[in-house]
UniProtKB/TrEMBL annotation:
Keywords: Membrane, Transmembrane, Transmembrane helix. It comes from the Bacteria. The keyword Endoplasmic reticulum does not apply. This is Tryptophan-associated transmembrane protein (Trp_oprn_chp). PROSITE patterns: TAT (PS51318). Residues 163-212 are annotated as: Disordered. Pfam families: Trp_oprn_chp (PF09534). The chain crosses the membrane at residues 58-77, 84-105, 125-148. Residues 174-192 have a biased composition (Basic and acidic residues). It comes from Blastococcus jejuensis.
């Protein structure tokens, strides 16, 4: 039982981590990653524009969508298919982390904004690429957990099937209070409360008396 509970906890952790990584990736991808200033020949003033994460690193929102879809798939598949899904989660997390690191290290390239041959200034908002890196690390961790342990995890619905079958087979247990009430009712009817009925069989109306 403890192993089953531990497996379900690991499955839940992997699903939540993959979904969280995907949500963070989509959040980061929708934010402004860079403020771009493009110089123009005098007397024209420079132009300014904002690059979102989807513009500066298109793989960020794409990896986020993959992670969200994989989080749902982890609940529906088992065995080898679940391990393959874990590999996909790890790959999407690695892609996400690499996309954020590339912007942090190399910045936004000139050709990303269509400013080749022009004087371009780029001011990167560090917080959102960092968030993408963190989300990627979470995705890689979730994928690794699935690859290492996912084959032994139970499938969706097993718990409910087991519970349902147990409830139909196991008889309803009677408490001491129920037996005490039966004894008092027997006394009220003038019957012997110490009479022993056949196990698992209901006595006929009026009761079966057994005199000592």
């Amino acid at each position: 039982m403890s192993q089953d509970v531990g497996a379900r906890r690991e499955l839940t952790s992997a699903v939540v981590a993959a979904a969280a990584a995907g949500g963070l990736a989509l959040t980061a991808g929708s934010q402004a990653w860079a403020q771009v200033t493009v110089g123009r020949a005098a007397p024209l003033p420079p132009t300014e524009s904002t690059l979102s994460g989807a513009d500066a690193a298109p793989l960020v929102p794409a990896a986020g969508l993959v992670l969200l879809a994989a989080a749902v798939a982890l609940l529906a598949v088992r065995g080898v298919a679940r391990v393959a899904t874990g590999l996909l989660v790890a790959l999407a997390g690695g892609t996400l982390a690499w996309s954020g690191l590339r912007v942090l290290i190399a910045g936004v390239r000139v050709d990303d904004v269509g400013g080749a041959g022009a004087e371009v200034g780029v001011d990167v908002a560090v917080a959102w690429p960092v968030l993408a890196v963190v989300a990627g690390a979470v995705g890689v961790g979730a994928g690794a957990l699935v690859v290492l342990h996912g084959r032994a995890w139970p499938g969706m619905g097993q718990r409910y099937e087991r519970t349902g079958s147990a409830s139909t087979v196991a008889p309803a247990s009677r408490t001491d209070e129920d037996r005490a009430q039966d004894a008092w009712k027997a006394l009220d009817r003038g019957e012997d409360p110490t009479a022993v009925a056949t196990p698992h069989a209901d006595p006929p109306p009026g009761g079966i008396q057994r005199r000592l």
